[in-house]
């Protein structure tokens, strides 16, 4: 196994709210990410009944406010990506940088100009931009005033936002995604849907309504994009965690089948196939709901059918195991969800089970189901890096993780899967979405910044930087990379 297909999109991925900083510069408004406290308890804090999006700097720290200051360092960072040989760079556009409150009719020109500069810098370095329209950064006003994505008004606001940035950048940007990890709301709707308990996060009707509104908004973005440029590619983006029944007990096998439908496939089924799947009835019934309980229109359903996405982007960090009899008590953590411990797998410093073969399985499952191009837009190892006195990190553990996952992708390509590209997550160290920490590092580039916000913000290539540079140079894992 040596080379990947010609034109394969090697690169890296980030999100505006986790690295940009400049949170009150250039006319930017506040986003929900700005109200998420830093630290391991951030999800516990926002899950409290009285959490109301208030930013309390006396009580909490907010590392997203500064990120790694990409807002002022983007030229330096993109130059480092180019040095690695990136063919593409996946990033997101901060909605509140373009529409500070989310409900304005006219965009903020200073925000548009910033992304003009970022996109032009990418193109000047022969890096194809891959843009996520909405990546866990809903304008705070839309969460506080409108109650998040359960409100149909947000379809209109998103359409205005999508039209503004697609019109501005479509001639320069071919690859887009509509919502980051849209299915993550099944477990935690705060980041993807802007819902917290005080605005109905614990009522599944609101979650399903929010999803429906997002599906419609996504279809509208596809429509706008295709009208602007014939060869534009707009994808959905899901969190995919390959799932296994813990054993051959038919009860666990059925539970795993339904888990896959409900979590791994539901959102993609609607966005890729253009219609709600047949198992929607069973899924809603589990929460004492029917489809009639949701506010939908015939026009919505026609739009979904007419404007499905062009490809499937997905994150893959780990797999999970399903056991429903209660005979297994050992549990593990995970990407917004945990599960029972799989005795065949090792885990990361944060307890996420490492399963490269699961990525090959994921690619086969998704391609067999949809027959549309796939794009691994997040994958990586969050770890505690310990630099030497020169800030050099020998991260062989990260190289080993990525190497095994690249080998799994090559295997899937040999299986016949149409794979577009690979953008490992957090290609430069940034603030973790799950914990709000800098110490949970993913990058090929070390950033001198700690969890308390102390540091010079200087950038230093890690050992993995040079390894990945070699992988891209050889369009895969050449012998000297092994």
UniProtKB/TrEMBL annotation:
Belongs to the glycosyl hydrolase 1 family. Keywords: Glycosidase, Hydrolase. InterPro entries: GH, GH_1_N_CS, Glyco_hydro_1, Glyco_hydro_1_AS. GO terms for biological process: carbohydrate catabolic process. The gene is bglB_4. The keyword Disulfide bond does not apply. The keyword Transcription regulation does not apply. One of its GO terms (cellular component) is cytosol. The active site is at residue 378. PROSITE patterns: GLYCOSYL_HYDROL_F1_1, GLYCOSYL_HYDROL_F1_2. This is 6-phospho-beta-glucosidase. GO terms for molecular function: beta-glucosidase activity.
């Amino acid at each position: 196994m040596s080379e990947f297909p010609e034109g394969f999109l090697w690169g890296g991925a980030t999100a505006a709210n986790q690295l940009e900083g400049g949170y009150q510069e250039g006319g930017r408004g506040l986003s929900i990410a700005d109200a998420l406290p830093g630290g391991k308890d951030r999800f516990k804090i926002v899950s409290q009944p009285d959490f109301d999006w208030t930013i309390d700097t006396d009580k909490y720290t907010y590392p997203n406010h500064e990120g790694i200051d990409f807002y002022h360092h983007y030229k330096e960072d993109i130059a480092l990506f180019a040095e690695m040989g990136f063919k593409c760079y996946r990033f997101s556009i901060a909605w509140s940088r373009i529409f500070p409150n989310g409900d304005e009719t006219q965009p903020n020109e200073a925000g548009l100009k910033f992304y003009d500069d970022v996109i032009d810098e990418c193109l000047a370095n022969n890096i194809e931009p891959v843009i996520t329209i909405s990546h866990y950064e809903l304008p705070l006003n839309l969460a506080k005033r409108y109650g998040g994505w359960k409100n149909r008004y947000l379809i209109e606001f998103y359409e205005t936002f999508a039209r503004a940035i697609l019109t501005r950048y479509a001639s320069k940007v071919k690859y887009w995604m509509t919502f980051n990890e849209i299915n993550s709301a099944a477990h935690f709707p705060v980041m993807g849907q802007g819902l917290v308990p005080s605005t109905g996060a614990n009522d599944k009707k609101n979650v399903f309504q929010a999803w429906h509104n997002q599906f419609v908004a996504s279809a509208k973005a596809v429509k706008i994009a295709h009208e602007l440029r014939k060869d534009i590619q707009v994808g959905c983006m899901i969190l995919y965690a390959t799932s296994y029944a813990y054993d051959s007990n038919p009860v666990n096998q059925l539970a795993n089948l339904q888990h896959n439908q409900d979590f791994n496939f539901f959102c993609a089924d609607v966005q890729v196939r253009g219609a709600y799947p047949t198992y929607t009835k069973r899924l809603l019934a589990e929460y004492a709901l029917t489809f009639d309980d949701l506010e939908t229109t015939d026009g919505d359903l026609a739009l979904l059918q007419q404007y499905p996405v062009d490809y499937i982007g997905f994150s893959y960090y780990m797999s999970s195991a399903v056991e429903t009899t209660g005979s297994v008590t050992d549990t593990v953590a995970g990407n917004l969800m945990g599960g029972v411990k799989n005795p065949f797998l090792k885990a990361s410093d944060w307890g996420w089970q490492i399963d490269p073969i699961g990525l090959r399985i994921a690619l086969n499952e998704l391609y067999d189901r949809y027959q549309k191009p796939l794009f691994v837009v997040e994958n990586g190892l969050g770890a505690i890096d310990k630099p030497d006195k020169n800030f050099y990190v020998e991260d062989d553990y990260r190289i080993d993780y990525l190497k095994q996952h690249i080998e799994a992708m090559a295997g899937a390509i040999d299986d016949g899967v149409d794979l577009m590209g690979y953008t490992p997550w957090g290609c430069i160290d940034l603030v973790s979405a799950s914990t709000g920490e800098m110490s949970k590092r993913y990058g090929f580039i070390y950033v001198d910044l700690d969890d308390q916000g102390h540091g010079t913000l200087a950038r230093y290539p890690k050992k993995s930087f040079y390894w990945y540079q070699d992988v891209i140079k050889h369009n895969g894992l050449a012998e000297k990379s092994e």
